[in-house]
Specification:
Blueprint (H helix, E strand, L loop, with lengths): L24 H14 L37 E13 L4 E12 L6 E4 L5 E7 L2 E2 L1 E5 L3 E5 L9 E10 L3 E4 L3 E8 L2 E5 L19 E10 L3 E4 L2 E8 L2 E12 L6 E4 L1 E8 L2 E8 L6 H22 L6 E7 L6 E2 L6 E3 L10 H9 L8 E2 L6 H18 L4 H9 L23 H18 L1 H15 L3 E2 L1 H12 L4 H9 L7
Parallel strand pairs: 1-12, 18-19, 19-21, 22-23
Antiparallel strand pairs: 1-2, 2-8, 3-7, 4-5, 4-8, 6-7, 9-10, 10-11, 11-16, 12-15, 13-16, 14-15, 17-18, 20-21
Helix pairs in contact: 2-3, 3-4, 4-6, 5-6, 6-7, 6-9, 7-8
The protein binds zinc ion.
Length: about 500
């Protein structure tokens, strides 16, 4: 968990520029204690007098996720990212400065960020002072500040870089990261990909707020998560700013640059911003319908899951060739490139928008827990089909349950599908079936209470499968070990 600070507070923040880093209260306390114990008059403003007794050690190069050991890092918590990025259509490259505000969680001699691909770093500072760095391992940007960073110390990293971002093409998990399009590009980060565009602590366990400052020639549209903070055009270049004020996992950060038609409305007091890629040749009527249907589906989901968790909503239809839609926070991206002219169907909207509660507001503790995203999003499709297509939820369950016992659907563990299995049908379909099995065990009243209280309890942070099992047992007052062992951890077809 991290502490979210409103981006406004970071503007012109000079905590780190005058007289060096602000000392933490713990530093002051320990230094004062040291002064007392040695009976000497040690001024608390002196250079770290306790350095002789303080050990600084490197932050871990990974966040400890067994599926993705290189992802994320240890030793600090990020509070905020500011990504200031200019896109150049001639080179299809970017020039960017990413500023990261973080807090050390140990005495750090050095720490890593994740940064991947051919982008070249031109300058890197920690608390305004040049730091030494090297790039090592699969995606490590290893940074050594001038002096160690004490635990609880808030520090600021600023990285300037440029180049053509890489696209990740994982044999098992598909395309992610920066994906070039005909007239720009889109950043789609699940599960790995953020590090192709900005230096990042690339783990869902370290959520942070974001601001984006995006510059491109004025005939292009630039979009990101969250709310627009305004736009200005100078010398033929337009700069737009966006803010995501709720904690966001890096896998859900989104940037889209290209020729888009944008529809802006309000839905229940929230901005509803949808955009359609001109390369998709979507009619103005359909672009408007996409916006309206987004608002309608959010309203339907609110009736099931409680208040929508973010300050704005919307969606972006792109022609990117990735073959999937992604629940990028507050504003999902739908690649419909194989169907020119079309907009997302209702069940697809229900899936990606349900993720705003399940996956985005509540993010998985580890990638093994991704059924907590996909099982709920698939279940939302079933709820949608029941409400709008006359297909009872139990019928959706039965249809999947009819899958033969020797099918791969049953041969994996829903809550531990393996690194290459995180997007498999077991996670989605068997995840949704697990929820239906739970519903039939605990009854509608407890089940629908759980659907609302789970995001209310864990929204803004992370939760594990173990958290969910405990939560379901508490809400229902039932021992559910056997049910969850059968549905989540037994790689065979459950008996009904
Ligand atoms: Zn999904």
């Amino acid at each position: 968990m991290i502490t979210a600070r409103p981006p406004e507070n970071l503007e012109g923040n000079d905590l780190f520029s005058k007289g060096g880093p602000r000392m933490s209260s713990r530093f002051l306390r320990s230094t004062a204690a040291l002064a007392l114990s040695v009976g000497a008059a040690v001024a608390v403003t002196a250079a770290p007098a306790g350095a002789a007794v303080t050990r600084f050690t490197p932050g871990a190069p990974g966040a400890g996720d067994p599926y993705f050991p290189d992802m994320g890092n240890g030793g600090y918590d990020v509070a905020h990212y500011d990504v200031d990025l200019a896109y150049d259509p001639a080179s299809k490259g970017i020039r960017a400065v990413t500023t990261i505000d973080a807090t050390a969680t140990q005495n750090l001699s050095r720490f890593d960020l994740d940064f991947l691909g051919p982008l070249r770093i031109s300058s890197l500072t920690v608390d305004g002072r040049a730091a030494t760095w090297d790039r090592t391992g699969a995606q490590e940007l290893r940074i050594t500040p001038r002096s160690g960073l004490r635990a609880h110390h808030r520090f600021r990293v600023r990285v300037a870089y440029a180049g053509v971002p890489q696209t990740v093409d994982d044999p098992a998990l598909g395309v992610s990261g920066w994906v070039p399009t005909a007239d720009g590009g889109v950043m789609l980060n699940q599960p790995t990909g953020a590090a192709t565009v900005y230096p990042v602590n690339d783990t869902p366990a370290d959520k942070a707020t974001y601001t984006f400052t995006l510059t491109a020639p004025k005939d292009l549209t630039t979009l990101a998560n969250g709310e627009p903070l305004g736009a200005a055009t100078r010398h033929g270049l337009t700069t737009t700013r966006w803010a995501m004020r709720s904690p966001m996992a890096s896998e859900l950060a989104m940037i889209a640059i290209g020729k888009y038609d944008v529809v802006r409305t309000k839905a229940r007091g929230r901005a509803n911003i949808t955009a359609t890629d001109r390369a998709m040749a979507i009619t103005p009527e359909n672009a408007k319908a996409f916006n309206t249907q987004t608002a309608d589906v959010v309203a339907f989901l609110e009736s099931n899951f409680g208040r929508y968790p973010f300050a704005s909503t919307g969606g972006i239809v792109v022609k990117a060739g990735v073959g999937y839609a992604l629940e990028t926070q507050g504003r999902p991206v739908y690649d419909l490139g194989r169907r020119p002219g079309s907009i997302p169907a209702g069940d697809l909207l229900a899936h990606e928008l349900a993720h705003q509660w399940f996956g985005d507001a509540v993010s998985p503790a580890k990638w093994a827990d991704i059924w907590l995203n996909e099982g709920f999003a698939t279940y939302a499709e079933w709820l949608y089909a029941e409400k709008y297509q006359g297909v009872p939820v139990r019928q959706s369950f039965d249809k999947v349950y009819a899958t033969p016992a020797d099918d791969d659907l049953w041969n994996a563990k829903t809550a531990d599908p393996g690194r290459d299995g995180i997007f498999d049908a077991t996670v989605y379909d068997r995840g949704a079936m697990t929820l239906q099995a739970l519903r039939e065990a605990i009854g509608d009243r407890a089940f629908f209470r759980l659907l609302r209280e789970w995001p209310a309890r864990y929204g803004g942070g992370n939760a594990s499968t173990a958290d969910f099992i405990r939560f379901a047992e508490r809400i229902s007052g039932r021992d559910l070990d056997r049910l969850f062992t059968t549905w989540l951890y037994t790689p065979s077809k459950p008996k009904l």
